[in-house]
Amino acid sequence: MNFKTAGVIGAGAWGTALAQSAAAAGLQVTLQAREAEVADSIRNTRINEAFLPGVELDASIAVTSDLADLAGCDLILAVPPAQHMRATLAAFAPYARAGLPIVLCSKGIERGSLKLMTDVLAETIPHAVTAVLSGPSFAAEVARGLPSAVTLACADLDMAEKLAGALSGPVFRPYYADDIIGAETGGALKNVLAIACGIVEGREMGRSAHAAVITRGFAEIVRVTEALGGNPATVTGLCGLGDLVLTCSSPQSRNMSLGLALGQGQTVEQALAGKRSVAEGYESAPAVRELSRKLGVETPIIEAVAAVLAGETTVDAAIENLLTRPLKPERE
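== Glycerol-3-phosphate dehydrogenase [NAD(P)+] ==
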């Protein structure tokens, strides 16, 4: 299959960066923004001032607010916020032909249904070919052409290889895999864990505590991945461990910056005030906690973050609870 055109659904920071990267890979790209005013602004200035200021987009990228304009694309990158994925895909469904590859690029668990984005796609556009793109990648860096590597997973490994080849550019390197559950789980859980790392930073608890949260948080990712039927080996790669390390290591991460504010004493409302971009960890934390409980998987760090975000406990009480848990073998 020869991919020549790509449609990007969602003109947030990550969607805009992926449009830029796909254009650099040689694809003819159409970027769709939900808000007509955002689309108009990008067309007029070639900059997404609302979500990715300071980056001039490739002149070849077409911009629209109409999903119908993506109907003829060879592949689709779906990048709306995770909690809006179902409605967005349902709106695009009339324009999606059978066998259209749709690459899911948003990370999260759907509230209410507790479903992965791959499940949401299967229910809204069942005739699509499902793929997942996930890995350590900050939107601003990708958009500016800095090197990055990600995982691109599809149950059909041959298709995964073809999609990786189509999206691979001079500095954007997708590694392909066939475990879509593992690829998606790592991305969904690491956002919640990044909030925990931000709290550690905000409380000035030290690098040792920071490393402990990353490591024990990764153990939670592995347990949930196994319970969902994914391959634990998948999350030892870019889409799991790699993404976790990046997101937990820089305030450039919206999730870590949220945790940092909480650790410094702000309320959740104060920390979120004035933020136009979504912190997916905040949106997904209740669903991740509920899903872990449903699976019978122990995820104490995720539990603590979800409780803090819901106002069920304080930061200090959550930290004390984690530090006073019974000792246990490390691999349990």
